[in-house]
Structures are given as C-alpha cells and as structure tokens.
Specification:
By secondary structure, this protein is an alpha/beta fold. It has a single domain, classed as TIM Barrel (Alpha-Beta Barrel), CATH 3.20.20. The protein contains ten helices and eleven strands. Helix 1 crosses helix 2 and helix 3 crosses helix 4.
C-alpha cells in the first residue's frame, strides 16, 4: 500500500489533510450522470482510498445527481473523524443531463440541504462556491451576492468553511472581504497553467489550491515529453503528472478521481515519487500551446 503521507500535508480550514486526496466525480456514470458502472467496486474504491490514508474527498450532489454522495455515505458513514469532505454548489442537472446555473438564495439553500441529506451530515466541512465561466475558465464579475448567501448559511451553522471554484484573484479578494476563504479550486495541470501567479498568491496567504482536472480532464494529458520523462523514472505518465503538481507548490492539494481500484492505486503511488531537477525542467517546458 502506498505511503501517501510522503507527499506532505496542508491546512484545509481548521484541519490538516494529506496532500493526496480523492475526487468522487468519476464514481457516477458517463458525464457524471446516472449510477456507477459497478456499484460494489465504487464502494470498494472509496473504502480503500480512506484505508490508504486519504482524508480529503471532493464531491458534489450534482454528480449522479445525488448518487455519488449517497455512495459516499453508503461506503464510509459514520465517517472517520479525520476525514474532510468538500462539496460544491452553484449548479443543478436538467432533465436532459445538462449543467445549469443555480446561484440564487433559494438555490444555494436547497443545495446545502441536499448535500446534508445525501451525505448524512449535520454540517458540511467545506463548501466551494462554483462560479460559472467560459468552458471551465473563470470570468471576471462580482460574486458578492451568492458568496454573501453562502456566508449566511455558514452563520446558520450548516457549513464550517467556505471555498471558491473557477474564480479569479479579484473575485477571491472580494470574497475575503465578506468571509474567510480556505481553498480555491480551479483548472490547472501540467499542460494548462493560467493560474501560475494565482497559486503563488494563495500560497503566500496560506490558502489551499486544489486543481480540478489534474490529469487533463476527460481527455487525459498526452505529451511526448511527459511519456519520455515517465519512462526515465519508471513511472506512468499520469503518476509523473501528479508528482509534478505535488512538487509545484506546497499549498496544492490533489483530488485525482477514478472508479477503478487499479487506477486508484496507481494514483496514490504518485505521492511517493520524487522528480529529479532535470525531469522537472523538462516538464516545465510543456504548455498547452506547444501542441504536444
């Protein structure tokens, strides 16, 4: 079993978590809709993740919808005391499976209560407010109204900590004027690095940065350089990409997802990889614009 503590820890709200976590989105069916392909294996993945030392799981009640959170409860409730479950609000699923914005007062309140019900919790550990943007990229604009509503739900005792997803530096600053922000979850990986400066800003403020699509999203990262470096260090390309993220900055928390026990074990093994300086330099040269 991998020693994921090798990757270190970071603060997430009032808790310290291992930097290698788990994202539950892929437990649902295609496009995060419908039940898992194999319910028993989905339960086994969650149980092995926690048994391996993962104490940070990312989820949302829109996955399924509802089914992924129900899986989490079925597999892990009553939850280990050290486990931090992070969920996100801001959307619902249409009858056709489409993702639709839901940032109004009643929308956010309903989503909080749905998450509480399906996770079987009395209070949510961390809730990320997901702000819509252009194809998973943030767009500037005030987030005061929905964030203020989320802060009110926090004051009601339904949420311990608040995070943000798909936001800019300016939006983070606006939010921090209303309530504490403990994490930011944006798109970032070896080939997509628009948030390089933002990561440094968050590190200076001791705020966790959680890259979504750490392995490139629905189209896995592919690069001749990545493949060559992985072969050199006797690892898979995906393990190498995860290791690069862990070495990128100490405030980065990873949440790679999978519905496969085999892939889970491969991902966790990345926590023990240490990339040599020459390998990091070669990987740093990869950017989306190269077309590799």
């Amino acid at each position: 079993m991998s020693n994921i503590a090798s990757a270190g820890t970071f603060r997430l709200g009032d808790r310290t978590v291992n930097r290698m976590g788990y994202g539950a989105m892929q437990l649902a069916g295609p496009n995060a809709l419908g039940p898992p392909k194999n319910w028993d294996e989905a339960l086994a993945v969650l149980r092995e993740a926690v048994a391996s030392g993962i104490n940070h799981i990312d989820t949302s009640d829109v996955y399924g919808p509802h089914l992924t959170n129900q899986l989490l409860a079925a597999a892990l409730h009553p939850y280990p005391r050290e486990l931090v479950i992070v969920t996100k609000l801001g959307a619902f699923r249409g009858d056709d499976g489409s993702w639709r914005q839901a940032l109004g007062r009643d929308d956010l309140s309903r989503q909080v209560h749905d998450n509480l019900k399906n996770l079987r919790l009395d209070v949510l550990d961390v809730v990320n407010l997901r702000i819509p943007g252009a194809i998973h990229e943030p767009s500037e604009g005030s987030i005061e109204e929905p964030f203020t509503e989320l802060a009110d739900l926090q004051r009601q005792g339904l949420i311990r900590h608040i995070g943000l997803s798909n936001v800019t530096s300016a939006q983070l600053k606006e939010a921090r004027g209303i309530a504490e922000v403990v994490c930011v979850q944006n798109q970032y990986n070896l080939a997509y690095r628009a948030d390089d400066a933002f990561i440094e800003e968050l590190a200076a403020a001791n705020i966790a940065y959680v890259p979504f699509w750490p392995l490139g999203g629905f189209s896995p990262l592919q690069s001749e350089t990545l493949t060559a470096v992985a072969a050199q260090i006797c690892a898979t390309p995906m393990q190498t990409a995860l290791s690069w993220l862990l070495q990128r900055s100490a405030n980065i928390l990873l949440i790679p997802g999978t519905s496969s026990l085999t892939h889970l074990r491969e991902n966790l093994a990345a926590a023990e990889l240490v990339l040599p300086g020459e390998a990091i330099a070669r990987l740093n040269a990869i950017v989306a614009a190269t077309g590799e």
